[in-house]
């Protein structure tokens, strides 16, 4: 891809920029932030690491929205982060106002781009961005499930001591504490985890995965997670830029899949150069359906703010 822009040069944005540059996923990588010097400083720092990591990506940063001009992909990490004790929904009003301004700028300077929303609450903000633009749903998606699935896979590896390379986890639904862990589709070298772990251990993994972000926030106190979120974003970007047609969980606009319409939530998607190519529908058992329905209620409660 010729150009990618990351809006928000905080910890998640800067860490994402570093990974994208190292993977050489674009020719030009732009960082945009309202704070004077933040994006430019981060960009220069990453650029100076290029000879050591061996990438030729040109990294630029600034405060003016024109910097995103002609971007093929815009990644939005800007917004106020959660503080200890806050839910993702607690930041919705402020972050909706921030996203409103950003999407106006995206439509002006990068009208042909695809957009990945990272800011919280990601389900609500992905829907809001899609409604505001009027774009095809393939062009507006959110990052959540890749991160939650990665956390779950990491905890499976810690519990079993098996290599993370052999572990595939799948998480649907809302982000974090609203997630729907699909343990039936979580495997180690294709073997269901139930073969290796008893239900008590699986429940322990699910619980820790569900509150993985909150655990990091409580430990750090002055910062939420950023390394794992950045890696999750990069996984999605690579699937799109390299047209992998990779199945990854992402926040997508549903048009009848899973019996839902006109809302955004985490589901398995095929990611390609088109963006969100299509949604993969998995059969849900009664327990999974109950969790899925609970997530839908939470998302719809947030969406009432738009009425």
What does this structure look like?
The protein folds into 2 domains: 3-142, 3-Layer(aba) Sandwich (Rossmann fold); 145-306, Alpha-Beta Complex (L-2-Hydroxyisocaproate Dehydrogenase, Chain A, domain 2), CATH 3.90.110.10. 41% of the residues lie in helices and 21% in strands. It is built from 10 helices and 14 strands. It has helices at residues 11-22, 38-48, 50-53, 92-109, 122-133, 145-160, 199-210, 212-220, 227-241, 286-303; strands spanning 3-7, 28-32, 58-62, 73-76, 114-117, 140-142, 167-168, 171-173, 179-181, 187-188, 191-192, 246-255, 261-272, 275-279. The strands form 4 sheets. The protein has a 6-stranded parallel sheet, sandwiched between helices. Strands 7-10-11 form a 3-stranded antiparallel sheet, covered by helices on one side. Strands 12-13-14 form a 3-stranded antiparallel sheet. It is globular. The N and C termini lie far apart (38 Å).
């Amino acid at each position: 891809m010729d150009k990618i822009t990351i809006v928000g040069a905080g910890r998640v944005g800067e860490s994402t920029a570093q990974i994208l540059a190292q993977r050489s996923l674009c020719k030009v990588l732009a960082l945009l932030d309202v704070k004077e010097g933040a994006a430019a400083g981060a960009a220069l720092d990453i650029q100076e690491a290029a000879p050591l990591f061996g990438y030729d990506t040109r990294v630029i940063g600034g405060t003016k929205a024109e910097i995103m001009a002609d971007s093929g992909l815009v990644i939005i990490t800007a917004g106020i982060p959660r503080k200890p004790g806050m839910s993702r929904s607690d930041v919705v009003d402020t972050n909706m106002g921030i996203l409103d301004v950003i999407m106006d700028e995206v439509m002006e300077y990068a009208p042909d781009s695809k957009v990945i929303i990272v800011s919280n609450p990601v389900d609500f903000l992905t829907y809001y961005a899609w409604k505001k633009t009027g774009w095809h749903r393939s062009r507006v998606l959110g990052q959540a499930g890749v991160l939650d699935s990665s956390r779950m896979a990491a905890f499976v590896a810690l519990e079993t001591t098996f290599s993370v390379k052999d572990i595939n986890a799948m998480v649907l639904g809302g982000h974090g504490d609203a997630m729907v862990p699909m343990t039936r589709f979580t495997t180690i070298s294709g073997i269901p985890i139930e073969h290796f772990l008893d239900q008590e251990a699986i429940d322990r993994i699910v619980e820790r995965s569900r509150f993985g972000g909150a655990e990091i926030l409580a430990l750090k106190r002055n910062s939420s997670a950023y390394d794992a979120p950045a890696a999750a974003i990069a996984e999605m970007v690579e699937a799109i830029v390299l047209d992998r047609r990779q199945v990854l969980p992402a926040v997508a606009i549903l048009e009848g899949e899973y019996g839902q319409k006109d809302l955004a939530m985490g589901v398995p998607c095929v990611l390609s150069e088109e963006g969100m190519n299509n949604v993969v529908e998995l059969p849900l058992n009664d327990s999974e359906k109950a969790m899925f329905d609970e997530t839908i209620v939470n998302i719809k409660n947030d969406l009432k703010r738009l009425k």
